[in-house]
Structures are given as C-alpha cells and as structure tokens.
C-alpha cells in the first residue's frame, strides 16, 4: 500500500483531472489511516499539496492541505497543523483572498496561544505578523498597523533577538512594506498619519523610529494617479478600505467583482468579515467544480443587527438591476456555533446563485460532493472568526469610522488571480454538433427571409458600414444575420398589426420564417439602425443561451454579460460553418446567392 500511495502522490498533478481522482485518493488515504494512523495520512495529503503547489495548481493544493490540517489536528501533531494553517493562509493570499488568509493566520495564532509549548511558542508571533501582512495587502492599512503592533509585542515575548532584521527576513520585508506605506501616506494623505501612529500605540518607539527613517529619505515621488494605477496590481483591496463610516471590501473571483460594505464598528466589522472570509474560502473550493458563472459585479450590503434574535438572519437578492444587489442581515446574538455556520454557508450559496447561469438543480447537485470534500472544516476552523480576529479595541474602530477614506479608493479595480479568473473551459450541456446544426439552419432561414432585403441593405453605404462595424466588434456572420432576420420579423408583426405576446402566436411564428418574395412588402432600411440591431443582438444571445439552459437577470444593451459567457465557455465566437462572406461574395449583381455551399461543393 505504501508504494502505491507514494506513486499516486507523485503523479497527483497529472491524475487530478481524471473523474476518478477523488475516489481513488480518498480510498488510499483511508487505507493509510487504518494501517499507519492519521498522522501518516496527513503526510500523504501534505506531499500531494506541495506537489500541486509546484505544479502551479493552488486550488487543488488547498484541498489536500486542508485534509492534512484536519488529520494533524490533535495534541501530538498540533504543531504540524498550525504550520499547515499558515501555509494555507499564504496560498489564499496568493489567490488574492486576503480575508480567508487573515482568518487562517489568526486561527493559527490562536491555537498557538491556547496550546502553549516550546514547539508552538514561535508560531504565535509569526502567524500574527503574517496576518498583519495580509490585512495590509487588502488595503486595510490602519488595521494592518494595529495588528503589526500586536505582532511586535508577541515577538518580544516569544522570540530570541525579536527585532533582528537580518535574522528574521520576514520581519525585514514587513518593515519595508510598512515604511513604504507610511511614505505614501505622508506624501498623499498626511491627515491620515495620526491614525497609523495611534494604531502603533502598543509599540510607539517602533513607529517613531519608522517615521524618522521615512522622513530622512527623499520624499516618495508617487502621485495619486500613479498610486491608483499601481494599487490594483499590488493590493487586493482599496487603500484605506477600513476607513470611513462604512468599510469597503472589494475583490474578484470566478470572473465576478464582489463589493461588500458594512458599518465601521467593532462587532459589525468582525461579523461581516467572518462572512467575507468564509465566502472567499467557499469560492476557492467551488472553483474546482467549475460552475457556469456570468461575469458581473455584485454589490453586497451586510446589515448586522445587535442583540436581535438570530431568526432575522436573511439574504435578499435583487436580480432586477444590471448589477445584482444583495442585502444580508446577520445578528450578533450568541447562538451555537453550528447554527451560525449554517447561516454563513447558506449565505455563500445564495451569493453564488446570484451569478450562476445554469438551473438551480446544477448547484444543488454540487452540494453533496462539496460537503463530502470537507467544505465545513475548510470554512470554519475551531473558534469563530469573531473570536480569533478580535484583536483591536473599540477605540481603534471609532478612529477609523471618524476618518475619511481618500477618493483614490474609488478608482480601485481588483484583478483576479489567474486560478480564479473567469473560466474558459467548455460549459455544461454544450454540444458542438448541435451548435453547428443550428447555425446551418440560421443561414438557411436568413437566405429565405432576407432574399431581397439583404442585397438592398448591403448596396447602401450606411447599411454596409453597419454590417462591417458589427463584424469588427467580433460578431460572426450568422449572428448578424439572425439580428437582421429578427429586425425584419419585428417589422412584419408591426406591419400586420400584431402585438408581440398578445393573442394567438401562430401567425407571428409564421411571419418569422416566411420567405421573402418579389411581391413581399419592402422592408424599410431604417429598421436596421445601430440601436435596433444591438437590441436584436442582445435578444439573439439570450436565445442561444436558452438552448444551453443558461439564464441571466436583467441585462442592458451593450453590457455583454451573456455574450461574454457564451464566448468563454460555449464557443460562441468560434462555431461557424462554411458560407459565403456577407461583404465579399454573398451578393452578386444585386442577387443574394445561396449562403451555404451545396452538397456537391463541400
């Protein structure tokens, strides 16, 4: 069994895409645990996790490391579990999921503090310093300063030569980042420097030395515009997102921009961040199942009700706006941990549902495998987030709330980590043969419905330019033709006195495919204006989407959410069949030619 498991672990990055990978892995791990114990199983998980890291597959690495964390989570091997938590936090940070990273770093620090021992003593200050770094990268610079000060105190207690920058390169790097931040603040927002100074109140000498050092060097040359240009690349959230009456969390994952806002007081921040952290873990986990998601921006308001019955916990999603808005109400009343966890898990699924384009049954079908894969122990580690991350006092939050966030924060645009970028794998239900069959049918219908109208349209400079502009925008000929056919259909219904959606649809359906003859009423070319064609292109994309069982909420002209999804995952910009070029040889001497080659020509 040992040799088989060893070979499997070595080959894991290659085997991971196989449908039977999880089943075989779990079977081997169970056998290892039965024969050699949980610690041996944890080592196998760790080995696979590091193999996935080397193969640049961090999402799969996380799955393995989470399992190692759990198997090591007991008194004899707790040190290994804490180390693994810190590494998990690092991976989340690299995925630009800074609140998940903060949660794991704080959990590691809490466990180290609760289980004192020589082997865990140094883990507390190290985990705290890492948590401070993750918070800094999230743009919460005032919180980051406060956590940095706490980490410095912990170093003084638990580490030899605690402030030796040569001995501790991680401290040297963190110190350099802190001084760079301070130099930017002094140059661009000097009114906010007192906030940073107050956050270092536990270690005032450290801040004073840092401020003096920054003052001695040349002033940071960065301008606000320069900062705005680089912030999206170097930070995972808006600068000073922790400042102002409302906090701001802004990140992107699965091709979706997630913007959370909530009141800036201690209990609200901790409760809201517990949701954000859990949701970021959830997104990294669900990404391995590749859900079909619309690229969008989701605005989430978290309303934390203090001392209210937990029954108020609700999630309300408004799909009737171009960018979905979500209101999440959470109570702060102490309930059993399992009940609170269920509330957060439910909220995560509802947030995902706001952007999933497939039927609800598809997400429901993921629930069993995702829970079996350990979703709960990934999202929640030991003590609640509100406890492990409760390191700053009420006065800190009051200072943050009373200050004003710089305008530059509004120009922040998060950039996804590549593993969490919008997926481009072929989507569920796609069938290439069916796609090409439908495209051929559309060319055939267009050839009949536009027999005389298309030559007239292309003979007009404006009409020809309109078709050319659509092609330049990436629309394929069959897509343009469908928009033209729909424009004709709409005009025919109006001309016949038919109101769409009213009465017997039989005649309207007949008009959609009725061949155009020499005696047919002449379609005015005004029906092919840019605005009207873009309306019909939007309708057409949603019609194609419906064939793949895709749906979306409200979408305005020009947004392109469904077109983007079809292009990324359903080959919408690729699938076509041989045909005559609309602008080259489709019309000869004013006569529309057969758009598709005859069987003998193929």
- Approximate strand percentage: 5-15%
List the total number of helices: 25
Uncertain runs are none
**Number of extended strands:** 7
Q: What's the structural domain tally?
A: 2
What is the terminal-to-terminal distance?
57 Å
Task: Determine the mean pLDDT.
Answer: 92
Give the structural class. Answer: alpha/beta
State the major sheet: 5 strands, mixed
Strand order of the largest sheet: 1-2-3-5-4
Helix content: 55-70%
Radius of gyration: 29 Å
> Which word captures the global form?
elongated
Written account of the structure:
The chain has 602 residues and is of the alpha/beta class. It has 2 domains: 73-420, no CATH class; 432-601, no CATH class. Helices cover 56% and strands 7% of the residues. It contains 25 helices and 7 strands. The chain has helices at 2-15, 21-36, 38-54, 58-71, 78-94, 98-114, 123-137, 141-158, 169-188, 193-199, 204-216, 224-234, 266-286, 337-353, 360-372, 375-379, 385-388, 394-402, 432-449, 453-459, 461-472, 477-495, 506-513, 530-547, 561-569; strands at residues 246-253, 256-263, 296-305, 314-318, 325-331, 587-588, 591-592. The strands form 2 sheets. The protein has a 5-stranded mixed sheet, with helices on one face. Helix 19 (432-449) crosses helix 22. The longest helix has 21 residues, at 266-286. It is elongated, with a radius of gyration of 29 Å.
């Amino acid at each position: 069994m040992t040799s088989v498991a060893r070979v499997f672990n070595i080959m894991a990055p290659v085997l991971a895409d196989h449908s039977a990978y999880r089943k075989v892995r779990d079977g081997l791990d169970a056998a290892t645990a039965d024969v050699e114990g949980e610690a041996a199983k944890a080592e196998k998980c760790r080995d696979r996790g590091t193999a996935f890291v080397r193969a640049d597959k961090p999402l799969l690495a996380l799955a393995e490391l989470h399992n190692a964390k759990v198997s090591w989570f007991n008194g004899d091997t707790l040190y290994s579990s804490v180390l693994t938590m810190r590494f998990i936090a690092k991976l989340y940070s690299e995925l630009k999921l800074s609140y998940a990273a903060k949660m794991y770093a704080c959990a590691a620090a809490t466990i180290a503090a609760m289980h004192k021992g020589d082997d865990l003593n140094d883990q507390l200050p190290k985990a705290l310093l890492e948590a401070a770094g993750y918070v800094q990268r999230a743009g919460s610079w005032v919180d980051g300063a406060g956590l940095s000060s706490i980490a410095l105190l912990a170093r003084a207690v638990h580490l030899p030569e605690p402030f030796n920058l040569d001995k501790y390169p991680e401290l040297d790097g963190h110190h350099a980042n802190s001084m760079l931040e301070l130099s930017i603040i002094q140059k661009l927002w000097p009114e906010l420097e007192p906030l940073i100074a107050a956050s270092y109140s536990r270690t005032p000498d450290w801040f004073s030395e840092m401020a003096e050092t920054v003052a001695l060097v040349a002033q940071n040359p960065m301008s606000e515009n320069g900062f705005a240009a680089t912030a999206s690349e170097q930070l995972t959230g808006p600068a000073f997102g922790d400042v102002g009456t409302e906090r701001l969390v802004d990140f992107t994952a699965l091709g979706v921009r997630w913007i959370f806002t909530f009141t800036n007081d201690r209990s609200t921040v901790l409760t809201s961040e517990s949701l954000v952290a859990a949701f970021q873990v959830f997104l990294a986990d669900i990404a391995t199942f590749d859900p079909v998601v619309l690229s969008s921006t989701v605005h989430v308001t978290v309303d934390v009700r203090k001392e209210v019955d937990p029954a108020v916990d609700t999630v309300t999603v408004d799909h009737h706006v171009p960018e979905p808005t979500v209101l999440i109400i959470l109570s702060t009343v102490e309930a059993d941990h399992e009940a609170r966890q269920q509330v957060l898990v439910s909220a995560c699924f509802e947030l995902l549902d706001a952007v999933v384009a497939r039927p609800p049954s598809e997400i429901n079908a993921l629930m069993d495998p995702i829970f079996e894969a350990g979703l709960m122990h990934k999202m929640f580690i030991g003590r609640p987030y509100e406890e492990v991350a409760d390191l700053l006092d009420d006065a800190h939050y009051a200072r943050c709330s009373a200050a004003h966030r710089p305008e530059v924060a509004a120009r922040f645009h998060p950039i996804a980590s590549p593993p969490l970028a919008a997926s481009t794998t072929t989507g569920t239900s796609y069938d290439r043969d069916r796609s090409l069959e439908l495209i051929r049918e559309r060319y055939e219908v267009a050839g009949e419905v536009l027999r005389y109208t298309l030559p007239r349209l292309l003979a007009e400079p404006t009409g020809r330019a309109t078709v050319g502009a659509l092609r330049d925008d990436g629309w394929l000929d069959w897509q343009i033709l469908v928009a033209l056919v729909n424009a004709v259909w709409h005009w025919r219904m109006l001309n016949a006195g038919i109101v769409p959606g009213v009465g017997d649809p039989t005649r309207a359906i007949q008009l959609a495919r009725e061949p155009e003859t020499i005696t047919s009423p002449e379609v005015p070319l005004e029906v092919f204006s840019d605005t009207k064609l873009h309306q019909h292109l939007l309708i057409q994309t949603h019609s194609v989407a419906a064939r793949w069982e895709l749906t979306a909420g409200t979408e305005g002209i020009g947004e392109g959410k469904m077109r983007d999804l079809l292009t990324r995952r359903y080959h919408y910009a690729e699938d076509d069949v041989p045909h005559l070029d609309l602008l080259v040889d489709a019309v000869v001497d004013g006569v529309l030619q057969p758009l598709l080659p005859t069987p003998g020509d193929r």
